Amino acid sequence: MNYAQLVNQIYTKKSCLCVGLDTDPNKIPKHLLDYEDPVFEFNKRIIDATSDLCVAYKPNIAFYECLGPSGWESLRKTIEYIPKENFTIADAKRGDIGNTARMYAKTFFDTYNFDSITIAPYMGEDSVTPFLEYKDKWGILLAVTSNKGGSDFQQFGGDKPLFKEVVEKANSWATHEQLMYVVGATRGELIADMRKIAPKNFFLVPGVGAQGGTVEDVMKHGKSDEIGLLINSSRGIIYAGSDENFADQARDSAKKVVEQMKHFI
Amino acid sequence: MNYAQLVNQIYTKKSCLCVGLDTDPNKIPKHLLDYEDPVFEFNKRIIDATSDLCVAYKPNIAFYECLGPSGWESLRKTIEYIPKENFTIADAKRGDIGNTARMYAKTFFDTYNFDSITIAPYMGEDSVTPFLEYKDKWGILLAVTSNKGGSDFQQFGGDKPLFKEVVEKANSWATHEQLMYVVGATRGELIADMRKIAPKNFFLVPGVGAQGGTVEDVMKHGKSDEIGLLINSSRGIIYAGSDENFADQARDSAKKVVEQMKHFI
């Protein structure tokens, strides 16, 4: 999916919601465990209940990988099931030397046909650029993350912290039509800071809901001229309910989040 | 495998060689493609030919992941086939928030039973510590890497570059019996620098052979009181030959590398 298509989808749906598919067999409703592939059955129902409300889905690859080969099969079926107008993000945080990064790009863009993948910047340019060689595919580089340890190294460097160096350098490798940034939502002023140094890039914003950030703060501080935000909620939506009505409850939760976005779009 | 067992293995074999299993179906000898699982058949023969010479094996996870579910099956069989006295490294470079890092630890330590996994430091403490909660399992944190882009961010920060900050902080999270560092081999003085700030930790050293570093330089600059080195060679060993004799040629190549290590151990 290209930049214009993604922006268009956001204006049409009046939503920049991304639903995080952190699907854990231990947390899904019990009645689904009788199916051959409970993880896929859960995702299918969540997708049916939310695909008109959200613009993107973000499976967290760790949750599939830890199930062994069957987890990768659940992932493949999930990606095939997601409607083509929804943007897909492999939340994999990969990062390795050029020839290995190329393998990871092949995995997520060819084998599994994702639109984008999250990338860790520590190994520098040649660990990032192989993901940017695919037409209409995206790299989403970690900049500021919302977890407790996020400040350990991202804020390192005093006046000019590491995350600014990352964004400055990465902006010289690719345009905003290929590269997004992960920007944690727990501190509004950090998002504003990021918007100054990356005025046009999309930000993938985790940390809303379970991790403490508010949608209003993110929209207010982070919006670009063409919105430029994908705000993720995982647990707050997919685990909103735990019984047979879980999909309806997921839809209600998604609606509430989109309601808070609407008047900013 | 614990620290004492690993050190003991190095002294017994007079080797600190790690063989990188970057197995690519496009690069393995043609006659293996007739087997049901060519990747495993290749690895099996390489392991048979080298396990008495090397102390560790390091499958590069990208190469297995990109083959889809069957790649993970080849990986599982490979790990089960490696003799118990050889240390195993999942070269996966994972790094994510606590609950996700826990999933990755489960994948590589429980599902696939690796001894260790490589980790990217960008997301800080809670992305690393879940890997350190397993008895006799190891985290191997990226410090200095040997690729071209390695200096983009690892050298950021002037007098005290980022990689030193990473090592200093990480050393406060775990001892040298749980935590190793990835230290690229292309510059000897960098390894000496690293040894000063991490006197006891094992270093996993890629970049010997195809990437340009020499074994002698690494041994001279990087050795700790108890050796503390795992020197990796991937392509230089596993692709030393390309016909039916490839395993013998791999063995010859491994022998040559070990020959250079012997008088330092």
Topology overview:
The structure is a homodimer of 265-residue chains.
Chain A: H1 3-13, E1 17-21, H2 38-50, E2 56-59, H3 61-65, H4 69-81, E3 87-94, H5 98-111, E4 116-119, H6 125-128, E5 138-144, H7 150-154, H8 162-171, E6 179-183, H9 188-197, E7 203-205, H10 215-222, E8 229-233, H11 235-238, H12 246-262
Can you describe this structure?
- 2 copies of one chain form a homodimer.
- By secondary structure, the first copy, chain A, is α/β, with parallel strands linked by helices.
- Chain A has one domain: TIM Barrel.
- Helix content of chain A is 43%, strand content 15%.
- Chain A is built from 12 helices and 8 strands.
- Chain A has helices at residues 3-13, 38-50, 61-65, 69-81, 98-111, 125-128, 150-154, 162-171, 188-197, 215-222, 235-238, 246-262; strands at 17-21, 56-59, 87-94, 116-119, 138-144, 179-183, 203-205, 229-233.
- In chain A, strands 1-2-3-4-5-6-7-8 form an 8-stranded parallel β-barrel, surrounded by 5 helices.
- In chain A, helix 2 links the parallel strand 1 and strand 2 (56-59).
- Chain A is globular.
- The model of chain A has no long low-confidence stretch (mean pLDDT 95).
- The interface between A and B is large, with 53 and 53 residues.
